[in-house]
Amino acid sequence: MAEELDPGNPLPTSEDILRAVTSDIYDGTRLSSQVFKGAGTSVSREAMYSVRKHWEIFRRPGGVEKPPRRRLLRIGQVNIERLQAIALSHDVPLELSVTYEPLPWNDAHAVIPQKISRGLANKLKETLTLHEEPSR
């Protein structure tokens, strides 16, 4: 069960987060650093809804899928504490946080507010477990 949080509060580091992996950042073989690069990276709380349910959530109107140009291909999953450890051990250490920021179409939405460099994003992307869409 997900811990009850007010919007704007940091998520517990024990939580896993989910990241939509779309056709503009994944070609079926290689995952771009854009999956984490920059500031304000949108993620979602696995503690609130299963990976299976997130396939539906990410496809809701206003969500991440924008056919035909951007399709949801995978969902990446990683633990917050693991991301933070990698960011702190990077060449230029960075304290990462994940803040709960629900949206009308996704009440499990959260954000990594810090600006992540391409070098760090390349390290972080390697930590993702990529989930394929389950059969219906």
Describe the protein's topology:
Blueprint: E1 16-22, E2 41-45, H1 51-58, E3 72-79, H2 80-88, E4 99-100, E5 109-112, H3 118-125, E6 129-131
Antiparallel strand pairs: 1-2, 1-3, 2-5, 3-6, 4-5
Give an account of the 3D structure.
The chain is of the alpha+beta class and 136 residues long. It has one domain. Helix content is 18%, strand content 21%. It is built from 3 helices and 6 strands. The chain has a 6-stranded antiparallel sheet with strand order 4-5-2-1-3-6. A hairpin with an 8-residue loop joins strand 4 (99-100) and strand 5. The longest helix has 9 residues, at 80-88. The radius of gyration is 14 Å and the shape is globular. The two termini are 25 Å apart. 31% of the residues are buried. The model has no long low-confidence stretch (mean pLDDT 95).
Write a brief structural summary.
The protein has 136 residues and is an alpha+beta fold.
Major beta sheet, specifics? 6 strands, antiparallel
State the end-to-end CA separation: 25 Å
Class derived from helix and strand content: alpha+beta
β-strand number: 6
Count of the separate structural domains:
1
Give me some keywords for this one.
single chain
